[in-house]
Amino acid sequence: MGASLPALFRRPAILWSALAVALAAAVVTVLLVVPGADEGPADGDGDYLDASLPIDERVADLLGRMTIEEKVGQMTQVAVPAIEAAPADVREYGIGSLLNGGSEALHDTPEAWAAMIDGYQREALDSRLGIPLMYGIDAVHGNTAIPGAVVFPHNIGLGAAHDPDLAGRAAAVTAAETRAAGIHWTFAPCVCVARDSRWGRTYESYGEDPGLAFEYAGPVVQGYQGGDLTANTSVLATAKHYVGDGGTAYSSSTTGDYLIDQGVTTLTEDELRAIHLAPFRAAVDAGVGSVMASFSSTDLGEGPLKVHADEYLITDVLKGELGFDGFVVSDWQAVDQISDDYAEAVRASINAGVDMVMVPFEYQRFISTLLSEVESGGVSEDRIDDAVSRILTQKFALGLFEQPNGDTSGAAAVGSDEHRAVAREAAAASQTLLRNDGDLLPLTGQERLYVAGSGADSIGRQTGGWTASWQGSLDTPTEGTTILAGIQEVAPNAEVTFSEDASAPLDGADVGIVVVAEDPYAEGIGDAGAGEHDMTVSEADAAAIATVCGAVDCVVIVVSGRPIEIEAHLGDSGAAAGVDALVAAWLPGSEGAGVADPLFGATPYDGRLPVSWPRLIADEPLNVGDPDYDPLFAYGFGLQTP
Ligand code: GLC
């Protein structure tokens, strides 16, 4: 037996207690002596807080100080409603990011938004290492979570404008109106390539041609991120949804009642690369800071695999071959779709290369599950360190360690005339003239006009989904100018009668303007045939066309996120009772006057179809180059006016 112990210590309980005290003292000594290991910024020291150091050195220093719990916390993104009752959990769990889904309008002003975010930021800064959080939002065509913000045409209209630089300017305005609210990160641009217009997200794409998305990705990413991510006019951009979200087959979706959204994209790898990967290459080359994985699956010949679990596509191709050095964020609760076994789902997604998980509700479960996977070796610490390094790199680039609180000095510019002018220019440039019998357009502005249709006086319809709420709404709080008000503004001398259902007397009218429209929708809710969105003209709008165009010369304007089935309502070109002029207005945003500008010749019509316009919806998928290609209006078609 070793040297005899004093009698007091021969009682095991006392002996162990004494040993415990001695051990604790030893650990404390180690911590105080060994720099870096669990050492906090006690006196504000710590290389990672030294803004004069290169970001990679700051990341390495901070990473070396972090516990595994703190690292996993940084990989966790939580929706505000899931944590608002326990804000201290941001500190407790070291949550890396918060978001609100679907650009939900939680607050009315930039200042109120910044105040909310700053509240959570204080919790993050109170954590041991004081790592600030990032706040993300779907500012995909303006920061529409603020009713007074400018709302731009959705991407399909920007694609029709065939002007990437204009799209970049639109992104820059959106970035300024987003960062002015204290928000650091937008989940945009969608560089998806919509190959079947029945997809409810067609309007989020620039069109069916990968070349369009390729041309737009760079200028738009640079528009959002600017030259300096620390600027109060820049936000981190997100290229989404990686990869192949726009190529899913109809009826291949297994998500709820969806038919095509989140389905399976069945292609050869070469086809996937040519059609859907190319825009991401442009976004990565433009320095995009984040990429969002797609809900969809790809089947390259060996059966469908969820992209969120695809190590080849995410790690080998995106991070390896394309050299993407930002971070990959999951989509909303998308990890859960990988497997009914949550641990397996978490393990598969993180090992595939997902760096941050948009949980977004049960964050404790996610954190404990991933910690268990690290503990068991299911996920390596190297993978965790890689993910956290990528996230921290963007946080340093955003300047969040130096300026963690919202800078609302740009709030006065939110919704400004200058910003609205850019949106009006974009709306006008996106207008696509598909028929113009007798050169009816442009109008002179001296006519007696009769305006009808569901899209004429509806901010909700002209802004569409992702506007103040996920699905958009007919009673949206969004401020703006309707198409009717735009007509009255651009043609003040015209005598305008408005009758949405065309029930008012028509006599005396020189020209009829019938604005037909889709009701707003987003994602798979908008999949044609999945519910109330079927890409056809509503009965009321069809009746308005028949009434008005049967009596006077008329122009039909289509407000929609994609082509709709319209041929049966047009009558033959040149026919007396037919539709004389037809305009695709897409989803023009808050500035309805942009739709009126080319109508009265204030600007030319010069839009070109970014997607093929089918005769019948059943003809989809319909893309230029298809065999027996027989659209009503071909991809790239558009009439011009002076
Ligand atoms: C959604 C969308 C994605 C969006 C995210 C956050 O489900 O797929 O585009 O950015 O959730 O709202």
UniProtKB/TrEMBL annotation:
GO molecular function: beta-glucosidase activity
Listed GO biological process terms: glucan catabolic process
EC number, as in UniProt: 3.2.1.21
Record domain Glycoside hydrolase family 3 C-terminal: where: 432-640
Family matches, as InterPro entries: Cellulose_Degrad_GH3 (IPR051915), GH (IPR017853), Glyco_hydro_3_C (IPR002772), Glyco_hydro_3_C_sf (IPR036881), Glyco_hydro_3_N (IPR001764), Glyco_hydro_3_N_sf (IPR036962)
Ranges for domain Glycoside hydrolase family 3 N-terminal: 67-393
Chemical reaction(s) catalysed: Hydrolysis of terminal, non-reducing beta-D-glucosyl residues with release of beta-D-glucose
Stored Pfam families: Glyco_hydro_3, Glyco_hydro_3_C
Similarity comment: family membership: Belongs to the glycosyl hydrolase 3 family.
PANTHER family per record: LYSOSOMAL BETA GLUCOSIDASE (PTHR30620:SF16), PERIPLASMIC BETA-GLUCOSIDASE-RELATED (PTHR30620)
Name used for this protein in its record: beta-glucosidase
